[in-house]
Amino acid sequence: MEIVKKLVSKDNSVKYLLKMEDGNTIETLYMYDGQLKLTYHSTVCVSSQVGCSQGCFFCATGKQGFVRNLTSLEITEQVDTCVSYCREMNLMPIDAVVFAGMGEPLMNYENVKEAIVNIYEKYKIGNFEIATVGLTPKIDKLISDFKGSPINIRLNLSLHASSNESRKPIMPVTSKYSIESIIDAAVKYAETFKRKTRLRYMIFKGINDTELDLQRLEALLKGKPLKLIISAYNDNNIKGLTAPKQSEVIDFYNKLKDKIDCGIFHNFGADIKGGCGQLRQENIED
Ligand code: SF4
């Protein structure tokens, strides 16, 4: 894999644009938590597909369409690149690999699974996270494949709306898998692995940050083994979407925090186009 671009952020994150043998490019993000605030301090965010078929309205990768799945080797090579960087810079070894780059990892299930096992065996990295729009049959498969395994996979479901009606326009997958079925799968996953499942909620100013959203989120999540992680939409110039101010994100969080388990997500590498697909999109448009 060839490094086409390497951007180093003020927060020490590094974003790579990598070119594969067939000329396709993907993004990989290395996230360094120098202040030791988060669970994992040295993390790689990998891509699992070139492009993506899910068409989430807010996503730069979704706009590019689906090209192909990555092989398990191409996924592992992204981790190899970041391991080399950490060694060169004398940073702490990588402690987690997150599938939250380009693509929907559960649409490339077998290669993602093989890569997880390879990375675990090669580097003894035992912590993984899969970010998904909520393909519930594949969540069931993850449960049956990794139950009892020493490999720890945290599930991170993209919710981003509080009703099916409001989620469909921004996440078309909702027509296939309803919010209720996704939450059922998330609860089952949490109960199996005895660890709360995370649900991501990206705030789009004026769209999903109303009083009604707060009420619906409370009704959906209260008392369940789930944690809502709230963040600002990482602005990538998509028409009709506005990023909230950080104070508005905090305000939304404050209104929920005594009702359901929730937290605020840190956007790594905002100054180096840390949101998924942005760097590749810019290169395509060059
Ligand atoms: S957010 Fe994820 S699943 Fe949705 S279009 Fe983007 S890459 Fe695909």
UniProtKB/TrEMBL annotation:
It holds the Pfam family Radical_SAM. Transmembrane segments: none annotated. Residues 38-276 form the Radical SAM core domain. PROSITE patterns: RADICAL_SAM. The keyword Transmembrane does not apply. InterPro entries: Aldolase_TIM (IPR013785), Methyltransferase_A (IPR040072), rRNA_lsu_MTrfase_RlmN/Cfr (IPR004383), rSAM (IPR007197), rSAM_sf (IPR058240). Keywords: 4Fe-4S, Cytoplasm, Iron, Iron-sulfur, Metal-binding, Methyltransferase, S-adenosyl-L-methionine, Transferase. Signal peptide: none annotated. It is found in: Cytoplasm. Gene3D superfamilies: Aldolase class I (3.20.20.70). Its cofactor is [4Fe-4S] cluster. It comes from the Bacteria. PANTHER family: 23S RRNA METHYLTRANSFERASE, RADICAL SAM CORE DOMAIN-CONTAINING PROTEIN. This is Radical SAM protein.
